[in-house]
Design goal:
alpha+beta, three-stranded antiparallel sheet, 11 helices, 12 strands, globular
């Protein structure tokens, strides 16, 4: 959802209303980030920006090398969007793979691993070539992450989404202490699937766990990096503009 908001320039309920063909709700299995290029073009058109642009999503090193080979052509565009998924993929890999947890057991090691990847990635070389051609680069992200440590019990039905940092549904059971509850989603520009739909967001370093298989959830997800809650680490994002010397 954050990437859809980023490229559309709209809030979730606005995307659902204006572009129902692109909106994917939490209970659907289809990926939520399949229409970023279409939403970006729609935003440019809405702002009357008739410019030549490109959208490039890099999900592996082959894509990164292809982008690198195409830098000269991209410099003919007014706007080039490049999405690198590595950091997000690393956070998920750290959750799912014991080896990655061993390589990045804490925040310091996680940052070191990310930096090592960056120093040897096609992305660094791409930035150098863009600088040589006097291009300007704006670097940002669609969300941050937080290392979760404290489980929070919640009960939901089969339609409840799987995110560990927020839940939405009509039959949620939980203690309202230490969470942020939104019972009127329209006030926060969130989609409202049913009359009784509510959203519950974790704060600080909590993560949701179901009473069923509670110990499994706690052992598996504790000390992993997650996003979707309302901590400062997730909500405040970096934004930097780089100009060549």
């Amino acid at each position: 959802m954050p990437e859809m908001q980023f490229f559309s320039g709209l809030l979730p309920s606005e995307i659902e209303k204006k572009f129902p063909q692109y909106w994917v709700s939490d209970e659907e299995e289809e990926g939520k980030n399949n229409f970023e290029e279409e939403l970006l073009k729609a935003q440019l058109g809405r702002n009357k920006l008739d410019i030549k642009s490109s959208y490039n999503k890099i999900i592996n090193i082959t894509h990164g090398k292809t982008l690198l080979d195409n830098i000269n052509n991209l410099m003919n565009n007014k706007l080039n969007v490049i999405v690198y998924n590595f950091v997000d993929m690393l956070s998920h890999a750290r959750t799912d793979m014991a080896m990655v947890r061993e390589l990045a057991p804490d925040e310091s090691a996680y940052r070191s691993l990310t930096n090592s990847w960056f120093q040897h990635s096609p992305l660094l070389e791409a930035l150098k070539r863009i600088a040589e051609k006097k291009g300007r680069v704006i670097i940002t992200t669609d969300h941050g992450t937080i290392r979760v440590k404290k489980p929070f019990k919640i009960i939901g039905d089969k339609s409840t989404n799987t995110n560990l940092r927020y839940k939405q549904g009509k039959n949620l059971g939980f203690d309202e202490k230490d969470v942020y509850v939104c019972r009127k989603p329209e006030r926060m520009f969130l989609p409202k699937r049913n009359v009784s739909t509510a959203y519950v967001f974790t704060i600080e370093d909590y993560f949701f766990a179901y009473p069923n298989n509670y110990n499994y959830y706690v052992n598996y997800y504790k000390d992993t990096f997650q996003h979707g809650g309302v901590s400062l680490e997730e909500m405040i994002i970096p934004f930097i503009t780089l100009s060549p010397k």
